[in-house]
Structures are given as structure tokens and as C-alpha cells.
Fold:
Amino acid sequence: MLPSPRLAPGPDRRLSVAPMMDYTTRDYRYLARLISRHTLLYTEMVVAQAVIHGDRERLLGFDDAEHPVAVQLGGSDPAQLAEATRICTDYGYDEINLNVGCPSDRVQQGKIGAVLMAEPDLVARCMEAMARVSPVPVTVKTRIGIDDQDDYPFLQRFVARMDTAGCRSLTIHARKAILSGLSPKENREIPPLIYERAYAIKQAFPHLEVILNGGLRDLPSVLHHLDQVDGLMVGREAYGNPWCLAGLDATVFGDPAPQPDRHQVARAFIPYLERRYAGGCHPKHVLRHALNLFQGMPGARAYRRHLSENMHQADTTPKVFEEALALVG
Structure:
């Protein structure tokens, strides 16, 4: 399959791993980068106000090996988002993404996420303020609609406003968001997926880069979507089974370099784990992201059990990972 050509500036977005709270930490991203050299990796969402006033190294720090890496910001104040964007670009991120898709009650209270779909002019002002201070692309991640504002004309009007604001890359989670009565997990499962809406947006706005998100599992079998859109963003599948990214450098990006096996990836992860440990990070914070690395392989259950039972102990060292690796065939 020949993937769609790149249209927007910045990193290659033909395949990316979605921003996921508590999951796409710097430690997961380092592991994912060992599996795939080209997949674009996103941070967890970070709130603009926290970037400005909080512990920036904890919120934004990353390893140079993670490139290409994008940061997702949450907020609705153009001035705050512009300042947070300036800080993030100083950190060296390859893209700044604005969250207009998260449906959780907690972020709605801060006027963050999918609730902003109802105010496209405000989103446009935020984008414009961010783009003015950013040397890297500013992009948007959104849903196909919210509550009863869920028909195609609503989405088309929203995208048209992003277009006039200068957005050139838009990621569309192909479900609407229900802003009250559903948990974030239910909002990822109950509203139906309507991939055709994203296809239609690409047809209506051919000059925009359209990235499809939502329900993309069993990666080789979903690559056919690249016939209709410019890229795919994978979420929970890439976390629950990180090895699903293996081989896609060749399939999606055309990279002929050999793919390392899982043991090679695990061995390459050890020096990183040791560096983080030496810097004061407890192994459990790093190793939780490697629990599913050997999913489906002989010994995977014993490997996972050994990590689960030992990595949380106060006196744990990186050696627990090597012990677990010895249990995998």
C-alpha cells in the first residue's frame, strides 16, 4: 500500500500514537521509539496554565531519542496558550497540538477539550495566537461532534473555521463526544464510529491534512484507511500491545532497515531505565509501560507477574527488569 503524501509541514503524521493521560509519558514514548523509528509520538495533554506556572521539567522533559515528538496542550485562553506554546517550542517539540476532543467533566470545567467544538471562533483565536509564536506547526485534535450537534454540516463548519485560521493538519476522532452522562472510557466506546465523516472532510478540504483516530486496532488490517485520509492515529492499541507498532516503519514509511526483535528492544531499554533510576525515578514509573511488551509470547505471563509483584517494592532496582526478561522464551 502506498500511503498518502504528506501535505502539512512538520513531522510525518502518516502514523502516530495518540496523546493519552497517564499513558503516553516520556517513559512509554522512549519504549515506543525503540520499536518504531518513525511513528509520531504525542505527550499526555498538559494544561497551558500548568506549563506556565508548574514544574516544567516534570511536565515537558523528554529524551532527544523520542523525536519526532509532539506536545498536546489544553486550554481556551489565547494568551495563556501562546505563552505555553512558546515554552514548549523552547523545549524542542516538533509540533504543538490543541486538544478539542477530550470529553471528561474535569477538563470541561476548565473549558478544555471537546466542549470547545461549540465555540469555533474561540478555537480559531487560540490557534492563531499559538501559531504567531511557534516556529513549528500548530495542529488540532477534535471529534466529529458533541451532544446533539453531531451532523456533518456542524463538523464541516467547524473545520472551515479551522481552515481560515490557518490550521493545516487536523486529527479527527471519528466519534462524537457526549459531554454529560458518559465517562471518558464510555465516550471511547459508546458513540458509534463514523469514519466516513473524516473521509468527507478530506474530500471537502483536500488541501488539509486529515488524520483519522478512533477504534483503530489490528494495525495491518486498518491501513486501508490511508486510501481515504492522510494518516492514522492509534490510541489504546499502541499502549496495551506496544509491539503492534513493529514492522510499520517498513509498511507505512517505506524504511527498509531491519526490525529489532522484542528482546533487542528490551535490552536497549535497560540503559534508559538505569539513567532514569540514577536520576531519582523509581523503576515502577518506567516499567509499568513495559508490562505488555511480550504479549502473546511464551513466558509473557511469568514476565508480567514478576514485574507486577516486584517493581512496586521500595527497594526495587532496574535489576528486576533483567530478572523478568529471563522468564520470556
User: Anything to note?
Assistant: Strands lie at 15-17, 40-47, 69-74, 95-100, 138-143, 169-173, 209-213, 231-234. DSSP finds 16 helices and eight strands in the chain. The first strand starts at residue 15 and ends at 17. The CA atoms of residues 298 and 329 lie 5 Å apart.
